[in-house]
Amino acid sequence: MFQLALRGVRQNRGRYVATVVAIMTGVAFFAAAGFLGDRVTAALEGNVREQYSGVDAVVTVDPEANDDFGSDLKISADVVDQLQALPEVVAVAGHLSGDVSFLGADDEPFANDATGRLWVVDDELNPTDLVEGAPPSAGGEIAVDRGTADDEGLEIGQSATLLTLAGQQSVTIVGITEFGDEDAEDGGGTVSLSADDAFAWLNSGVAEYEDVYLRTDGSQDDLVAAAEPLVPSGFAVQSGDDFIEDQVDAAGSIGTILKQALQVFALIALFVGGFVIVNTFTVIVAQRLRELAVLAAIGATPKQIKNSLRWEGLLIGLIGSILGVVLGFALTFVLIAVLSSFGVALPGSGLKVSPSVVVQGILAGTLITLFSVMRPARKAASTEPIEALRDAAVESKTLTPARMGVTAVAVGGGAALLLAAPSTALIGVGALAFFVGVIIAGPVIAYFASRSFRPVMAPFGLEGRLAADNIGRNPQRTATTSNALLIGVFLVTLVTVSGTSLKDFAVSKIDEISSADFNISSTGGTIDDQLVAELQDVTDVEQVVPFRTESVAEAAEDGLPVTLSTGDLGALELVANLRLNSGGQIDEISQIGDGEVAVVDFGVDIPAIGSTVTYESAQGESIDLTVVGVIKGSLDSITLGNLANEATFDRFVGETAPTQAFIDTADHVQSDVQDEIKSITDLRPDITLTAGNEISQAVGSIFDFLINAVDGLLLMSVIVALIGIVNTMSLSIIERRRELGLLRIAGMVDSRVRRMVRLESIMISTLGTVTGLLAGAFMGLALIWAIDRQSDADIGVNFAPLQLLIVLLAGVVLGYLAALIPAARSTKPEVLEAIQVT
Predict the structure, then answer these.
(1) Dist CA 705 CA 274 (whole Å)
(2) How far apart are CA 154 and CA 160, in angstroms?
(3) Is the CA virtual torsion 151, 157, 163, 168 positive or negative?
(4) Model pTM above 0.70
(5) Are the C-beta atoms of 667 and 524 separated by less than 8 Å?
(6) Which pLDDT tens digit goes with each residue over 599-615?
(7) What string of DSSP letters covers 775-817?
């Protein structure tokens, strides 16, 4: 039987071409996703290990804090001096970074995303390598990364103007650096500074560090134990090995997530390819029934016939999968080039060919092919020899009462659960039942669609009526062909409808809790009086309200960091539209007194009114404050954090300068003044400008990106489905060669025969597209309603009609294109050759 299978593959290789292409397409995408993911993972993990290779211990924000507020905590130089004095410590390196950029000769900033970093003197703790020149040691000296130097034409000895939070600085480039195999440690470029310049330009002249790395010539455990008593609240000490593994896990997870996400879509494409394979083998088996009948007549058992066809499927799957892995290797370079053309540079260089990806790709393609062959092989084995030896094939009856009953139960029951199920588990069962029901209902839909198409096709004459009848002649084959396209369109529609609806809901909710028109914040710098005056002078800017903020540790919460802010409380209350929950000791924010605090309602662990909370600063100072009010949660109140009056803040934190400000503009002019405000803030690289609706716009953009990305990845399954239409129509032409020859003898000219084939393909693609649209839209609607039931949210349904119209038109057009090759083949044989009995 194996020898017979080999002969069968050789003799039918032309018929198997499209099957191999379908397998190759899915496996190539699967393999390319694996290769890309492994490259990103290896590069990120390698960079992390190289960056921290000399670190034996690290003092960093408590990893259990899991709070963005902790990112503002810093370690004072006094603590670092104490750590340096420990006998276990050989070297100490403080980490300090901030935003910088350069000012060009035309007074326009460039390298706007660059990061300024304190140069680490200790070679073993320094993650950056000097490739040319000297390190920055004196004031005004900097080193730039190789990529920035090449892109911007910067050279050693060149003078430049560096934009920092402390203003414009005249600097001289003394060195060029690199980071392992990468140009820079930071995505936007790295500018290395001497210690004095780093403190002055990145941290307002204060000698503080974000993290501290320690090196020892002894045990890491002994080093951790010695350093722990000196660590301030909100920070923790980790051994170098533990810290590196945490960073590797975090970095490697990015590549793993990318790899797994892409491979899910590749598996969907392979699943769709299964329909193509089922159709291909079904048609091929129908064409070879006489051959199989002869084998049965000379003694081949049904089991041997079935195994022979399975061996054929196994061989085709193996060949297609191996070629797919090879194609995937080439496709990876294409994907990298495409991403690079859009400005997306993947970490690392070259490719990491993992044996696991190769094996998984070959197994996935081969097994899906093998399983797809099962049904046609079983049907061939069950066909009686005398029936197979007939000149004409008998169309099988697929619209049995049992099928229609199962279809009704699956579709109806699934829809009912989707619309009314009280639990998430039942909703999931309903979604699965509905989807399976739609697939099972394919022949039923094809049969009734054939009748519906007849009046639509009537204006096209005889070929239109014949094309409509052909759809219903073998509804099982029509359904299998259209279902491949249906799945892709169904998923695209589901993602589009549900994603667009969730996006609209999220954007509207964020807009509801936005108050101030703009927020500016300085990373490591201050909002000084001159900047406030410049912003205040902008036409239609009504008010600029700066405020001071500090990350502190809340002792009652195990030292986890929170934000404490102060400023003109009355002005902040108005510009940020702050509101207090009922039941507090004050009616207005401006009434917060000395020794009192108003906390933000984050929804959990809200201190009770009248209770006392204890805060600790990075310098070890502590203060007890009485809770007098709870501020309702909003974007602006979250930005502010807990509020105290200026006297309390000064006594606890000190007379620091403002680091953030809210900007209020005249009504309906926000977009008009944004460019003028931005032109001012662009000259300060430490300043981040955020529009009041920018977060909602960002959320909307993220949703749009995800929807478009998912739809783009699902396009792979649609491409495989179109290959299936070409394949099935081509094989159908071969199977119906006698019928088409008789039509030509009866007087149908070749152009009308080709037209009939094209119309048939358009109807199949339209059937799959429309069914997928309707089913996907219904499930999207049902899932949104389910979310509303489960969460009491009021999410409106957006069917995204423009996008769905594009999908519908694309399905029809692609169906027409898929028919061009089969239509050309339909009239290629000579008439007498076509009507010969095969």
Answers:
(1) 29
(2) 9
(3) negative
(4) no
(5) no
(6) 988 767 788 899 999 88
(7) HHHHHHHHHHHHHHHHH---PPP---HHHHHHHHHHHHHHHHH
